[in-house]
Amino acid sequence: MAAILAVTAGGCSLTSRNNTASVAAQTPTEAEWRASLDALDARYRENPNDADATIAYARALRATDQRAQAVAVLERALIRNPLYMP
Predict the structure, then answer these.
(1) Is position 77 within any domain?
(2) Which end of the chain is more exposed for a tag (fewer CB within 10 A), N or C?
(3) Does residue 23 belong to any structural domain of this protein?
(4) 0.85 exceeded by the pTM?
């Protein structure tokens, strides 16, 4: 989960130049993110331990320029699910 959160928080792009156009076409617009923000918020609040809900909500927050809130959501997820380091 930590790796997924790190990639999401970092905004890492795993696309190559050959398929950048197709990825851009699939990326939701800010208006679409804003429209889905309430539903993602409700899903996250219903089960804050759901990694998929947490990541989706954090992505929506980041896409709507609410970066501090996105970081807070991801930090809470890491506090709830600490990394196991032997």
Answers:
(1) yes
(2) C
(3) no
(4) no
Domain that holds residue 62: 28-86
pLDDT, tens digit only, all 86 positions of the chain: 555 555 555 554 444 445 555 555 688 888 888 888 999 999 999 998 898 999 999 999 999 999 999 999 999 999 988 776 66
Question: CB–CB of 42/28 below 8 Å?
Answer: no
Residue 18 belongs to a domain: no
- Look at residues 27, 54, 52 and name the one whose alpha carbon lies nearest to residue 41: 54
Residue type for 9, please? A
In the chain, how many domains are there? 1
Tell me the DSSP string of 32-66.
HHHHHHHHHHHHHHH-TT-HHHHHHHHHHHHHTT-
Q: What is the DSSP code (8-state) at residue 14? A: -
